[in-house]
Amino acid sequence: MNHNSTSKRIILAGGSGFLGRELAAHLESRGGYEPVILTRNPDGYEGAGRAVFWDGKTLENELRTEIERAAAIINLAGKNVNCRPSEKNREEILTSRTDSVRVLGEAVRNVNEPPPVWIQASSLAIYGDAGDAICDESARVDEGFPANVCTAWEEELGKAILPNIRWAALRIGFVLGKDDGALPFLAKLVKLGLGGSIGNGKQWISWIHLDDMIAQLVEALENPAISGIYNATGPNPVTNADLMTTLRRILNRPWSPPAPAFAVRIGAPILDSDPEIALTGRRCIPKRLTEAGFEFRHPDLESALRDILKTH
After folding, report:
1. CATH for 8-177+207-235+284-298?
2. pLDDT in tens, 143-179
3. What is the C-alpha to C-alpha distance for residues 144 and 155, in angstroms, rounded to an integer?
């Protein structure tokens, strides 16, 4: 296979999702990068970069060929957690994460020149439902299904990494973007007059503007000082009640009654979602990225939402 030797090949596993598509477009627009999207459906992929088939769990020759002499692996693969919490879905949530890391690790050990950098997605869910406690990277890791998935995910990375690979695990927060993620759904609820707080509204949301999330991924890719575990979130988490109040203000909607926890639990199966995602939260801060000098373009929730929803 003839690879463009002038561009740095970046392997984007799970790159056909929300973050992957944005990151591929950003890397391509910067120049000097060739994003390679590993996806189950390369024919259906529309976006920047070059799509290559990978099922997320098998070590194929094509995967080895792509990884040989690549500049970096960025692994964003994993089933969306916002689904009905059935046994089957939970099993897929876990295995889609651990399998992808394990097989990429096998690929790295099966090539002559492995990528020198591995950026791995993880999640702030590792801290559990942490109440009002402020969680930096040294905070206690919790128990429970979401936290256990994250722990297994990160442990798999520990097994996969070779000594000469610089790695960073980004525990990603609630990413706010215009066309995907949870924000379009929340904006729709607000417009329908259903934009009240969820449950008691006191659960913390560690949010980040999509532009800053992409910038953090690029920082992890390009800055040789970035190594280890990082909270990939914004500097100013807010409560659910504050988030919904701000959204109503921006979208010019009046006060809305809160959705009590029991109603959220009753309604979740209709939406094929997991109610606990909406009812639990954590107050995380990006201590290590801030200490590394990362500057946020959108540290304030109201201006971030106005930028995304383009209201002034």
Report:
1. 3.40.50.720
2. 999 999 999 999 999 999 999 999 999 999 999 999 8
3. 16
b/e string for 245-268 if b means 16 or more Cβ within 10 A?
bbbbebbebeebebbeeeebeeeb
C-alpha distance from residue 86 to each of 83, 142, 197 (Å): 8, 21, 26
Give whole-number Cα distances, 133 to 130, 136, 139, 153, 236, in Å: 6, 10, 9, 24, 14
At 216, list the tokens: 């953090």
Of residues 3 and 7, more confidently modeled: 7
CA distances from 255 to 68, 223, 246, 279, 305 (A): 56, 45, 11, 20, 18
pLDDT of res. 2 = 47
| Structure-token pair, residue 279 | 């009812």
Dist. CA 22–CA 66, nearest whole Å:
21
Residue with tokens 């990151």: 23
Q: Quick one: three-class SS letters along the chain?
A: CCCCCCCEEEEEECCCCHHHHHHHHHHHHHCCEEEEEEECCHHHCCCCCEEEECCCCCCCHHHHHHHCCCCEEEECCCCCCCCCCCHHHHHHHHHHHHHHHHHHHHHHHCCCCCCCEEEEEEEHHHHCCCCCCEECCCCCCCCCHHHHHHHHHHHHHHHHCCCCCEEEEEEECEEECCCCCCHHHHHHHHHCCCCCCECCCCCEECEEEHHHHHHHHHHHHHCCCCCEEEEECCCCCEEHHHHHHHHHHHCCCCCCCCECHHHHHHHHHHHCCCHHHHHCCCEECCHHHHHCCCCCCCCCHHHHHHHHHCCC
Q: Which of 189, 204, 222, 217 is nearest to 301 (CA)?
A: 204
